[in-house]
Amino acid sequence: MGTNAPLYAQVEQSLVARLGVSLHPGDRLPTEDELIDEFGVSRITVRRAVQNLVARNLVVTRRGQGSFVAVPSFTQSLTALTGFVEDMDAHGLPSRARVLRVEEIAAPPDVRAALDLPLGARVTRIQRVRLAVGHPVSFDDTYLPTDLGRLVAQDDLENEQIFTLLESRHGTPLTEASYAMRASTADAVLADALEVAEGSAIFRIERTSYTSGLRPVDYEVLHYRGDAITFTTRLPRARTPGQEQ
Amino acid sequence: MGTNAPLYAQVEQSLVARLGVSLHPGDRLPTEDELIDEFGVSRITVRRAVQNLVARNLVVTRRGQGSFVAVPSFTQSLTALTGFVEDMDAHGLPSRARVLRVEEIAAPPDVRAALDLPLGARVTRIQRVRLAVGHPVSFDDTYLPTDLGRLVAQDDLENEQIFTLLESRHGTPLTEASYAMRASTADAVLADALEVAEGSAIFRIERTSYTSGLRPVDYEVLHYRGDAITFTTRLPRARTPGQEQ
After folding, report:
1. Is the dihedral of CA B86, B87, B92, B97 positive or negative?
2. Residues of A in contact with B240 (CB under 8 A)
3. Residues of B numbered 97-116 whose beta carbons fall under 8 angstroms of chain A's beta carbons: which are they?
4. Quick one: pLDDT at residue A88?
5. Which of B174, B180, B189, B240 is the most buried (most CB within 10 A)?
6. Cβ–Cβ below 8 Å for B185 and A86
7. What local confidence, expressed as pLDDT, does residue B244 receive?
């Protein structure tokens, strides 16, 4: 953000940059007086910056107690295939990945079915925790056919997006994806990775992404923290047989 | 089903009619020999009937142990606004409702927001458990503006669908709906109604249905058993700024 941005926007941006770095969910924000001193701006500017953070669901204000960093929570419209970083960018939130594991394994039956692979096929599995403003919100297992997986495995998966890598570096444009969505609960592994209690709600998505010719090239099992995500959609009324029109 | 239907289909239909009545999830189906005796048909006919029930996810076969009534589990495509009974009909499954409560209350804030009602407005709340093959799969809170709610409250809600009542009896065609979907867990009330353990996974949907002129007329909070439902959709790839085409 250039220094031509309004003062409140500069303060806002400066605070967002600290989220997940020196300010974590539940932490108290500096007081208005502290922010006035630090940035050398007016109270009205500080208030506007904080109000914007509240409107972005990044900060919650508790009456008489001050402002606190919120647990990230997003509403995501089911309108197009997008990756996690793209989604967070759209929300104006810094995001990154923690790579837990990159390995080649015999494809389990659900992976074989999704990627249309023969018995005995091997796949590259990439296990990551996705963070928004420094806070874990999703635990992802990504399965790629080894021809693509071996290429992607050599990329910088902490800082680059698999969709971007497939499309821009490895000649594999994505055209569409199928989603299967379920409610589930966190086992010990998920609870540990997502920093929630065992048994917490998990929004589980199996997503198969396709390239040209409807060839499946990327199968993911995404486990979102239940308290972090709401998916929205809008559907037309089905015309039922009994209805006129 | 007429008596012109193939024998296996008659046996199949006869068994489906017992589901949720004399045969409940987990119950063992009669053996092949028992079914042969009862229906006076061949083994091949009995097998075909049972195989069809397995294909419909109504029955599971355990090697060496026989066939058992399955816990109902559905895959529901997010393509059009449909009611529970319509969905179950599409799966060929008998469904019904158990009405827990019909009352008029002051509209809570989320209900007012969804139905676009002023402060102090009252609404009709209808609380139902939805059963598929006799098994509870969803706990629904339906909120209607009182002009419609008072009419619907006098209808037979155990046997009639609210969508059908609104559209066919009360002159309120539905045109579309907005959905907000979250993963959650069962509290004591939900656990009791859905016959699951407290803390079990719940797929929670807030759905607002609209009539002509985009006027909201029906706000529901649906709580599906997490083990009963998978929602599917298919999305095209978003065109990102960096992409050619």
Report:
1. negative
2. 86
3. none
4. 87
5. B174
6. no
7. 41
CATH class entry, domain B7-69: mainly alpha
CA-based nearest distance B209→chain A, Å = 9
| DSSP string for residues in chain B | --TTS-HHHHHHHHHHHHBTTTB-TTPBPPPHHHHHHHHT--HHHHHHHHHHHHHTTSEEEETTTEEEEPPP-EEEETTSB--HHHHHHHTT--EEEEEEEEEEEEPPHHHHHHHT--TT-EEEEEEEEEEETTEEEEEEEEEEEHHHHHHHTTS-TTTS-HHHIIIIISS--EEEEEEEEEEEE--HHHHHHHT--TT-EEEEEEEEEEEGGGEEEEEEEEEEETTTEEEEEEEEBP--TT---
What homologous superfamily does CATH list for A74-232? Chorismate lyase-like (3.40.1410.10)
Residues in A 171-210 with any Cβ partner in B closer than 8 A: 173-185, 199-204, 209
CA distances from B78 to A178, A179, B53 (A): 11, 10, 25
| Chain A environment of B234 (Cβ under 8 Å) | 176-179
Q: Record the pTM.
A: 0.84
Residues 6 or more apart whose Cβ sits within 8 Å of residue B170? B148, B151, B152
Of A81, A168, A180, the CB nearest to B232: A180
Structure-block tokens of residue B34: 């028992």
Q: Which of A93, A172, A74, A78 is closest to A132 using CA atoms?
A: A93
SS3 for B22-79, per residue? Answer: CECCCCECCCHHHHHHHHCCCHHHHHHHHHHHHHCCCEEEECCCEEEECCCCEEEECC
Tell me the two tokens of residue A73.
């929570």
Please report the pLDDT score of residue B1 as a whole number. 52
Percent helix, percent strand, percent coil in chain A, to nearest 5: 30, 40, 35
DSSP three-state, residue A227: coil
Chain B residues within an 8 Å CB radius of A191: none
C-alpha to C-alpha distances, B91 to A137, B75, B139, nearest whole angstrom: 35, 9, 19
Q: Convert the pLDDT of each residue in B81-133 to its tens digit.
A: 998 888 888 887 888 899 999 999 999 999 999 999 999 999 999 999 999 88
Q: From CA B181, how far away is CA B201, in angstroms rounded?
A: 13
Domain boundaries in chain B?
7-69, 74-232
What Å distances lie between residue B41 and A68, B11, B23, B44, B49, CA to CA? 71, 9, 21, 8, 11
Give the Cα separation of B136 and B125 in Å (integer).
20
User: How far apart are the C-alpha atoms of B243 and B223, rounded to whole Å?
Assistant: 40
- Please report the ipTM that was assigned to this predicted complex: 0.83
Amino acid at site A34: E
Instruction: Specify whether the CB–CB gap between B228 and B196 falls below 8 A.
Output: no
